[in-house]
Amino acid sequence: MAPRTRRTAFPKVLIERDTDSEQSSSSDDENELEEENEGPPSESEPEEEDSTKNGTGERIEEDLEEDSTKNGNGERIEEDLGLKRKGKVPITISLKKVCKVCKKPGHEAGFKGATYIDCPMKPCFLCKMPGHTTMTCPHRVAIEHGVIPAPRTNTRNTVEFVLQRQLRPRILPIKPAYVIPDQVCCAVIRYHSRRVTCLEFHPTKNNILLSGDKKGQVGVWDFDKVHERMVYQNIHTCIVNNMRFKPTDDVMIYAASSDGTISSTDLETGMSSSLMNLNPNGWQGPSTWRMLYGMDINAEKGVLLVADNFGFLYMVDTRSNSKTGEAILIHKKGSKVVGLHCNPVQPELLLSCGNDHFARIWDMRQLKAGSSLSDLAHKRVVNSAYFSPLSGSKILTTSQDNRLRIWDSIFGNLDSPSREIVHSHDFNRHLTPFRAEWDPKDPTESLAVIGRYISENYNGAALHPIDFIDISTGQLVAEVMDPNITTISPVNKLHPRDDILASGSSRSLFIWRPKEKSEPVEKKDESNIIICGGAKKKRKGNFGGESDDDSEDDRYVSKGKNFQFKKAESKSAPRPRKVVCSVHVKLRFYATPLTLYRFYALRPDKHSNLYPILWNLTIDSETLLHADFNAITSY
């Protein structure tokens, strides 16, 4: 006789919802499944039916309370214990809305599409004040809300007026109109293998832009000749936090990295040397590993200043390329010093900022621990601090509490800032810190540029604009954006001589110019949008290239939608029936013998939508080639 096994009933599935009136659309299916799975009635099934009502899976609170306690002492009934041991306790599936911010049910918070929804249990994400949400925050409606404008007259003190006129001879009495670069004229998509961390323009050549990334690479890009670019991959092994050109030699670039080294690189030969290494013994643990963050050059003394993640300042002689003096503690021990800036008019003044919630002013003639001239207090970490570029009499700081703080005069009262401007730049992990920077060409020293963290809904796409702010009034002068740039742009740099803005968004670089100075893209023969890294690794739904684990996906797409590139069709494949556009593009490149090249290009139509085009071409020449292609694509 064959052995007989005892069938057990399938455990009940209980669904918890926000409201009792809400019913599941699949309740009938669940009942059918229960009937199919039910076998011969077992001894414990009647006890199990007492915990449900009408077989719908909804729990009755009164029955649970009566069955779960005995004699008012909270002791479990033996039957319930038996059910738990047999594994027949109903399975509960919760469909309640849970907040991603406070982890409590009943409401939702966070980004929903292009709109940010605040958690009602938390203060406003923008201004950090309770009583309202980010969508209704008055600082989001008008960024100048609560800002006290600067007085029209600089000062009423005679002595201070004389000092300011000596320091500010180039300040115009009449404020000129701002020139805002608000249109992308060229770009390199996925130029770096990791996110961009810093940008620097060449001091003498207006068309050269240098960029550093998280992997330690340094890129050199000629954005006038869009296709001429180079990446130095063996300079550093970790994040490049700052770069500065040598004042006496415009082909030498200094870079400070989180690997604890300062490098000096010749851009003509590509040769690099290490000036200082704070980790000669390699990795010995996080408690001893030193990383270099803030850096600046005192051209008058020929000294390179750099600070680390333990609060110390180091000096390197640029003439002998060697370390000089001892390390000086300028911030709280164990805190990062993320920014250094020498006064452009009085080089002996040094401004530093760090994670100890302070920005400090120092006199380099008597530089020692605890000898700061003034300590500028902040509520949270200070990302950057800069003197004004022309007179050096103003200070602009960026803090993680979503505040831009301005001191109108370093000769006045520095106990409190002249004004605070609320701006969205408080970010989470895996993002380069936002830094508000002066416009070096503005004679009134009142224009600053900074990227925005909270996205805005523009025709259904979540875009993160770049803001130009008048720091004298707190007003938003302009917000520039492009529907094809859906990533955050935390790194922004204004050209010191031309009306150009360079922005680093994830691994890509973008060059902005004013619209009246930008040539229409349709009239250009050469494509100004370059896509790099497509041949190494590919991923569905995005341009080729590996995803950066510490940044958003790189997308240069039309209206927030991802293009999907299709493989080149074979000769036997049928031709597409619907032809969308015929494109003629000139490509300029260097080739090696018998090499298969795959080109991706983006062609804008009359609606400024970008369509991808793919070519496969075999080159058998070693000289510089100029090739013209006619391609037909469809979608």
TrEMBL record:
Sorted keywords for this record are:
DNA damage, DNA repair, DNA-binding, Metal-binding, Nucleus, Repeat, Ubl conjugation pathway, WD repeat, Zinc, Zinc-finger
Which molecular function GO terms apply here?
damaged DNA binding; zinc ion binding
Stretches of Acidic residues bias are at 27-50
Q: Pfam families this protein is in? A: WD40
Q: Where is this region: Disordered?
A: 1-78
Q: Name one GO biological process term.
A: DNA repair
GO cellular component, alphabetical, reads: Cul4-RING E3 ubiquitin ligase complex; nucleus
Question: What name goes with this protein?
Answer: UV-damaged DNA-binding protein 2
Q: Where are the WD repeats?
A: 189-231, 375-408
Give the family from UniProt. Belongs to the WD repeat DDB2/WDR76 family.
> Biased-composition ranges for Basic and acidic residues?
67-78
Q: What is the lineage of its organism?
A: Eukaryota, Viridiplantae, Streptophyta, Embryophyta, Tracheophyta
Q: Which residues form a coiled coil?
A: none
Where in or outside the cell it occurs: the entry states: Nucleus
